Amino acid sequence: MDVRVTSDPQAFEQTVFPFLQQDPVLHTIIMSNVHERANGTARAESEPSYFVSVHDSAHDPDVIGVAMRTPGRGVYLGALPEQLAEPIADAFAEVLPELGGVAGDRPAAHRFAQRWVERRGGSLTETRGTRLHKLIDFTPLSADGGAPRPMNADEVDLVAAWGKDGFAEELFTGHHEWAAKRLAEGTMWIWEVDGEAVSMVGYHLPLFGVCRVGPVYTPPTHRRHGYAGALTSHVSAIILADGNQACLYTDLANPTSNKIYHQAGYRPVADFVDVEFTR
Q1: What phi, psi does 5 have (nearest 5°)?
Q2: 3-state DSSP call for residue 119?
Q3: Of 28, 96, 191, 196, which has the fewest CB atoms closer than 10 Å, so is most exposed?
C-alpha cells in the first residue's frame, strides 16, 4: 500500500478524479472542494490544504481511497473503506500539528479517530450524524402561498446573515463573500411571500453531472409553512431540467427535514458522522 500526501489540488484532481467520478454523488464533498481549489474559485486561504490518496502499491496508479483536510476544518474521509483509515491517520499526523476532528463513514471515522488519539492523546466524541440523499423520484412540493425567484442583487447582506445564522460552522467566515459568489453564479433562490423573502435554497454548480443542494434555510418566524420544501423541490426541478443529478445532506437529528426531502423524492445513499477530538 502506498499513501501519498500533497497540497497541490490540481495534481490531486488529476490523480483521484478518475476514481471519484465513478460515483460523483457519493464523493460530492471531496470533488467539489478539490475542484474549487484546483480551478482557483475557492476563497483565499492562509494555510495549505492536505490531500491524501491511497494506492495498492508505489507503482500502481489505481486509487483505492482518498481523504482531505482543508484549512480550519477536520479531516474529511467521505466513504473511505475502514481498513484505510489508520494509514491515512498516520499520513495526516506527519503534516498536521493539531486536528479538531474527522468526518466520514462511521467505521472509518472512528478508526481514524482512535488511531489519532493513540498517537496524539486526548479523547474522541461523536457529535453529529448526517445523511446523503440522491433525488430518485422527483415530486413537486407546495407551500402556504408565495413563489420562488432568483436571489436579487440587493439581498447579499440578507443571504449572508441567514447563512451565518443557520450554517456558521459550515460556512466558517466570509459570509458576505460567500453570498456574493452565490449571486454571481446564480445558484441561490428565494421564496417570496407578499414581497418578503421568507426562505432560501442554494446549490453547487454541476460537477460531473451532479449538483449538491444547500444550504436550505428559513428564519424561525417563517417556518412550518412549507417554504423550504417547496423551494427545494423547485431548485431540484431546475437541476433535473439542466440534465444533472441532484443530491443533498440532512442532519440525522432533524427528522422533519428528512421527512420533507423524502416527500420530494430524495432517497438515502449513505450516512456519515463527525467525531471531535479533545485534550
Answers
A1: -120, 135
A2: helix
A3: 196
pLDDT tens track, the chain, 279 positions: 899 999 999 999 999 999 999 999 999 999 999 999 999 988 888 899 999 999 987 666 799 999 999 998 999 999 999 999 999 999 999 999 899 999 999 999 999 999 999 999 999 999 999 999 999 999 999 999 999 999 999 999 999 999 988 776 656 557 899 999 999 999 999 999 999 999 999 999 999 999 999 999 999 999 999 999 999 999 999 999 999 999 999 999 999 889 999 999 999 999 999 999 997
Helix (H), strand (E) at residue 112 = helix 106-120
Integer CA distances (angstroms), 131 to 14, 30, 47, 117, in order: 28, 16, 29, 26
Distance, in Å, from the CA atom of 21 to the CA atom of 196, rounded to the nearest integer, reads 40
Which stretches does DSSP call E strand in the chain?
2-6, 50-55, 63-69, 75-78, 101-104, 123-135, 147-150, 188-193, 196-203, 210-217, 245-251, 266-278
So where are the chain's domains?
Answer: 2-121, 135-271
Say how many C-beta atoms besides its own lie within 10 A of residue 51's C-beta. Answer: 25
- Which residues does residue 173 pair with via DSSP β-bridges, in sequence order? none
The hierarchical CATH code for the domain 135-271 is 3.40.630.30
252 exposed, middle or buried (CB, 10 Å; 0-12, 13-18, 19+)? middle
How do residues 35-93 score in pLDDT, each as one tens digit? 999 999 888 888 999 999 999 876 667 999 999 999 989 999 999 999 999 999 999 99
Please, are residues 273 and 106 in contact by the beta-carbon 8 Å criterion? Answer: yes
Report d(CA 219, CA 217) in Å as an integer.
Answer: 7
